[in-house]
């Protein structure tokens, strides 16, 4: 009998977590599953809401994590809650899901078990979403909203003690790289190692032009995208050159941001510059002596 473990990431989602969990439970089909809600760094009522749901659903497990960090939550699930043999599906707690989305992604794995990972599919009629859909089908990118990692691949990750760096933005991009390269094996074969399940649909809420909070959310999102760009550029380059041993425990330790890496002639410019300033400031906090030395020489 196939058993499924679902890892759901939640950070300050008191407004959406109940509907997300309901959507998960409605779309697992006939598979038996345990749902682990990784409630990381929440300062709202997310944990209380999930705990109330768990009181009446024995297969829902709220997991309280003090650090508000998705990559750390991923590590916690893999090394403390994954049972070593179930099919593991990962999803974001601010989404809802299409009909039988979780059944479809597990079915896809069972039909094509050679894939290290299988990505779900974003559903929307907007231009950006259609571009993302096309890119995923062409490149076999991994979407962080909904994806599956095969038991064999997870066992390989664990045997190599692979953990995502704390503070990493873009767990999906890093896991996509690790899946496509078979953990830095020297080959990069996303189409052979990452499957795309177009029936495993995840649905995200639109930002509204009439809500001020959504403007702030959009701005923060764009800054995070730029931070992810610099992180991936630095860390993945080191992994390609040195192998999996180059994976830093903390993202900032492996991240740099130089002016020539800034995307000057693009809509990313202002966000790249903000992100570069943030990265440089973190670096100075980590190495205050080097900053003092540079001032003494100037």
From TrEMBL:
SUPFAM superfamilies: Nucleotide-diphospho-sugar transferases (SSF53448)
Protein name stated in the entry: Glycosyltransferase 2-like domain-containing protein
Organism expressing this protein natively: Photobacterium halotolerans
Residue ranges of domain Glycosyltransferase 2-like in the record: 6-135
A matching Pfam family: Glycos_transf_2
CDD domains in alphabetical order: Glyco_tranf_GTA_type
